[in-house]
Amino acid sequence: MKILLYNPDNGITRNFMPHLWMFLLQSLTPPQHEVLLIDGNAQPMDEAGIAQYVKDQNIGLVGIGAMTRMIAKAYRMADAIRSVGVPVVMGGPHVTEEADEALGRDGGPRHCDAVALGEADETWPQIVDDAVNGQLKDIYAPVDAEGKDKKPSLKEYPAIPWNSINLDQFNLLPKLVKPFLDRVGEGWGTFRIVPVESGRGCPYGCEFCTVTGFFGDSIRFRTNESVVKELLMLKARARKEKGQIAVFFIDDNFAINVKRTKSLLRDIIAAKAQVHWVAQISANLLRDEELVDLIAQSGGKWVFIGMESVDPVNLKDVNKGFNKPGEYAAVLDRLAKRNVYAITSFIFGMDNDTVGVAERTLQQVRTWPPGLPIFGLLTPLPATPLYKRLEAAGRLTRPKHWKEFIPFAMAHTPLKMTIEEAHAEVRYGWSHAYSPEAIAHAVDSLDDQPLGYRINIFLARMCFRGIYFPMMGKLAWVKVIGQNWRTIYKMVKEGITGRRPLSAKPEKLNTLADAMSPPSS
Ligand code: B12
Ligand code: SF4
Hints:
Blueprint: E1 2-7, H1 20-28, E2 34-39, H2 47-56, E3 61-65, H3 71-83, E4 88-91, H4 93-97, H5 99-102, E5 114-116, H6 124-132, E6 139-140, H7 178-181, E7 191-196, E8 199-200, H8 211-215, E9 220-221, H9 224-240, E10 244-249, H10 258-270, E11 276-280, H11 289-297, E12 300-308, H12 312-317, H13 328-336, E13 341-348, H14 357-365, E14 372-377, H15 385-392, H16 419-433, H17 436-444, H18 451-468, H19 474-483, H20 485-497, H21 512-516
Parallel strand pairs: 1-2, 1-3, 3-4, 4-5, 5-6, 7-10, 10-11, 11-12, 12-13, 13-14
Antiparallel strand pairs: 8-9
Helix pairs in contact: 2-3, 9-10, 10-11, 14-16, 17-18
The protein binds cobalamin and iron/sulfur cluster (SF4).
Iron/sulfur cluster binds next to helix 8.
């Protein structure tokens, strides 16, 4: 049977990275079946397009996975596929919490033939078998013989064949510049960010987060050996295609068990399996100097830190009191000293937020080493403790907000400002953190670093700006390049003449490739 795994886009912004679930389920599919993958972020499709595609390709089963914000599109695509007689199974965090909605048991239309609840590593082969026999059940739940919820152990993790998977749809660099970039350093003709997991689960239970409910508070890890093997395979692929591969460790909290993380990083270094990597780590775990040393030595370049708020009252409200705003600066300095920078994520519209929260946050951000701040709104995702609290308090203004996805729009009333004021705070945050002046400041603050680091922060800022200001067309890019021409000119001039800005310290590395290269690879 031919199976299609499909991940919808949200129609507004594009993800920079493919979704792991597709590659994982592909690897777990019994070998007699052929599995095709389409990520809507890289290959946008509409309802008519996907219906035609499944007919033309003679697809026997479609699997769709989606987060809450893509679910409306996922349902529309599922409806179109089912209308041409092909069964659809849906999985992922949204339908796990809202299975009745997906199956039309809540009075609405039915969108799929089956729902895979929770982690589907062990149920997927059964789903495929049942589809072959035309006997799909409504619900597949990962349970043991006694019917108790069962979380897959990651000890027997499947080998994802990264060396042969077609990743053409996921090159982040425009084809136009390929001939030039092929010649930079060891080659920059392709640049892909690939998701790798080393473990699942987070016990912290922040009020707005789906993770503790979905993956459970039991943390499970792959063996160091299997992670190292995967990295070596990715590294070999990059070398073969004269390109670059960076890894996003998608673990919710990569250092949740510091001892284990250190041992993994040591094994990566020992095996010379370093690639450039990004991971999510909460600020409290980055107090450990040795951990931060190992992060840098193993190729860590960016750490995503869910700071959420600079107000301890807000943090306590959402059960994230373990974040201590007073230590944010020290944590970021500790990373920056090793040339590791942070993606700092903030949530506005929290219960103790008042007008001016964006500026108050930016005042702190401006004192930190340069990074990538991102701003969102407190969002009640289905089945989270936050959703239940706001529902009970009658504060939800759009209880089924996912049925009509609007980016950066609140679905409940904040306590100390209006919804419109909260929206304005987010707008303020993005427009001030990504203004040409702010970008120039971030680049200039690395004047004592090699040019590669400044190019790196500039390009990263350009891409992250697109999260709030969609940059889907060429015109949008031309405009933003025009706005930032001074910063670009300065870097190009330095690249050509080799002359550093006056304040700069002596050169250590020269090129972008040098700056991005892991230390001992
Ligand atoms: C990596 C990641 C991202 C990446 C993008 C996704 C990508 N390309 O991989 C980035 C960093 C860009 C991102 C952004 C966002 N993310 Co995110 N992200 C994750 C993260 C950390 C890992 C996802 C992952 O690969 N997990 C590992 C795989 C194996 O698990 P899985 O995807 O759940 O798949 C398993 C099952 O769900 C199931 N399954 C999944 N799909 C399907 C389909 C079928 C057919 C079947 C049978 C089974 C099945 O089987 C899989 C194997 O067991 C998760 C948290 C988490 N641990 O999952 C959050 C998570 C998915 N993100 C979340 C959110 C909210 C966001 C943002 C909205 C955050 C924000 N405020 O901006 C944005 C939205 C992005 C967008 N494009 O619109 C929420 C989603 C909650 C929800 N109800 O939708 C999560 C769960 C985190 C959380 N804090 O709650 N994210
Ligand atoms: S630390 Fe991160 S992953 Fe863990 S519960 Fe909190 S927000 Fe979710």
